[in-house]
Amino acid sequence: IGSNSQLACKLRPNLTVLTWKISPKVGGPCTLGYRADLNTTDRTNCSDSINWKFRPDLDAALEIRQVGIAQEGDYTCEIAATEGNYQERYYLTVLVHPRLSLYCDDRGTPVCEAAAGKPPAQVLWVVGSNSTPEEEGHKNGTVTVLSRFTEHSSNVINATCMVFHPAVNWSKSIVC
């Protein structure tokens, strides 16, 4: 999230029409097109974050600036050329780095939290804990995962939380 993403579409000789068809999870479809016989481009229902500076002699790459969850979805480049029709298809998945914290609650229990991540993070404790993480989904598609350390024995001094997520792996210890 927040990065720029570029999707390639390989040009073919004797191109007649090139179309990007975009179906995001949020909002309506968007279409970008180029017609060789008129040397014209057209955009329909595309946000300003989608940039396409098509030149038939260079490339047909699509740039998505400041990628957000709303841009997640199907992106298809269709090319019609005298030799045939071609298609390249992408599914853009947006990763959201969770906000990570480890703290002691008011009862002195270690709590590990991976807030507002996408996909949900996996939260584990290093030493024996029978904790079951709680997940809370948010309207924007992110998920907060919270885990309270439940010790098997009273000999545990340090509690170490590990968080696994496609955008980050994290480990931190705490004494409560």
TrEMBL record:
One of its GO terms (molecular function) is signaling receptor activity. It comes from the Eukaryota. Residues 1-93 form the Ig-like domain. The keyword Transmembrane helix applies. Belongs to the CD200R family. Keywords: Disulfide bond, Glycoprotein, Membrane, Receptor, Transmembrane, Transmembrane helix. GO terms for biological process: regulation of neuroinflammatory response. PANTHER family: CELL SURFACE GLYCOPROTEIN CD200 RECEPTOR 2, CELL SURFACE GLYCOPROTEIN OX2 RECEPTOR PRECURSOR. GO terms for cellular component: external side of plasma membrane. This is Cell surface glycoprotein CD200 receptor 1-A. It is found in: Membrane. It is a single-pass membrane protein. PROSITE patterns: IG_LIKE.
